[in-house]
Amino acid sequence: MRILVLGAGGYLGGHVTERLRALPGARVLVGGRSPGADVAVDLAADRPYLLAGALAKAAPDAVVNCAGATGGDAVTLAEVNARGPAALCAALREAAPGARLVHLGSAAEYGPGTPGLRVAESEPCAPAGPYGATKLAGTVAVTASGLDAVVLRVGNPVGAGAPATGLPGRVAALLAEVADPGDPEGELRLGDLSAYRDFVDVRDVARAVELAATAPGPLPPVLNVGGGEALPVRELVRRLADAAGFRGRIVEEGGDGGGSERSARVSWQCSDVTAAAAALGWAPAHSLDASLAALWEARPRSFVPDGVAAP
Q: pTM of the entire structure?
C-alpha cells in the first residue's frame, strides 16, 4: 500500500508518518516543500494541474493531509487551511480518484460549545475566528469533493514534540527554563486558564489516521478524534508542572501571557467520539498524565514544526 503524507514535517504529521511507516506492507511517501520530500508539492500555492502531475507520479493508494496553519494572518490561514484542501481534492479527482483521502480537521470548526455537553459530528458549526473558519472551509472542500474521503476533527493534541505555538508546548518550554523547579518560591505566570478543553494524545491521533487510511469501504464524511472529556486548562498546566517537578506557584494573569485570542472566545470544547468507535473501532488509549509525561520527557528531541503544523 502506497501512502502519501502531506505536512509530515509538522507536529501531527511527524507522529502520523512514524506510525504509518511501522505498518506492514506500507510504502510511505512524504510530500511537501522541503528539499528532501519524496513528492514536491505546495498546497498553498501550486495550481491543481501541477499537484495532479505530482500525484500521478506518486500513484498513492491513500493520501493523508496533515498540513494546516495554526497561526498567522487571515490570508495565510486561508491559503493553507482552505485553499490547500480544495486544490488537493481537485488534483486527486484528476490524478488518483480512487485513493482514500484522510484530512485532518479541527474541533475549532465547531466554535463555542455548551458547557457539560459533547458535540457530535452532526451539530452545526459556528467557528469563533479565522482559524476555525478556514479549517471548516477545508472540511467542506473535502466532504463535497466526491472522493473516498474522511475528515478527522482533532481535539487538542498533547504529547511528545508539542510545539510552543500551543499551550502544552509553551508551558513545557517555560518549565524547562526554570532554574530550580523545586523552589517553592518560584512562579510560572500565565494567562486565564479557566477554559475547558478536550485533550487527546498525539499517538491516539496517529492511530486514528492509520485506521482511517486502511479501513475497507466508505467512511462517514467527518469523525471526531478527541479525548471525549473536557478538562480545565489549569488542570493540564498543574499536571504538567507536577511532571516537571515544579513546586512553585502558577499565577494566572491577563495580557499576552495567556492563551490565544481564538481560545479565549471558546470557554468549553468537548467532542463526542462514539462515531469514531463505530466506524474505526477507535477510542483514546492514553491518559492525559501519560501524554504530559511523554511531552516532558521528549522535550530535548522534539519534532521541529516547519510553520505548517497540526490543527
A: 0.92
CB 157 within 8 A of CB 223: no
Q: E strands of the chain, at which residues?
A: 2-6, 27-32, 39-40, 62-65, 100-106, 148-154, 156-158, 187-190, 196-201, 222-225, 230-232, 249-252
Task: Report the b/e string of 262-291 with b at 16+ CB within 10 A.
Answer: bbeebebbbbbbebbeebbebebebebeeb
Burial (CB count within 10 angstroms: exposed 0-12, middle 13-18, buried 19+), residue 306: middle
131 is catalytic: yes
CA distance 58 to 38: 9
CA dist 107 and 105 (Å) reads: 7
In this structure, how many other beta carbons lie within 10 angstroms of the beta carbon of residue 161?
Answer: 22
Residue with cell 506492507: 25
The number of angstroms, rounded, from the C-alpha of 272 to the middle of its chain's C-alpha atoms is: 17
CA 233 → CA 46, 109, 190, distances in Å?
A: 38, 19, 11
pLDDT at residue number 185: 87
Given 11, 110, 131, 196, which residue is catalytic?
A: 131
Which whole number is the average pLDDT over 138-161? 97
Report d(CA 82, CA 283) in Å as an integer.
28
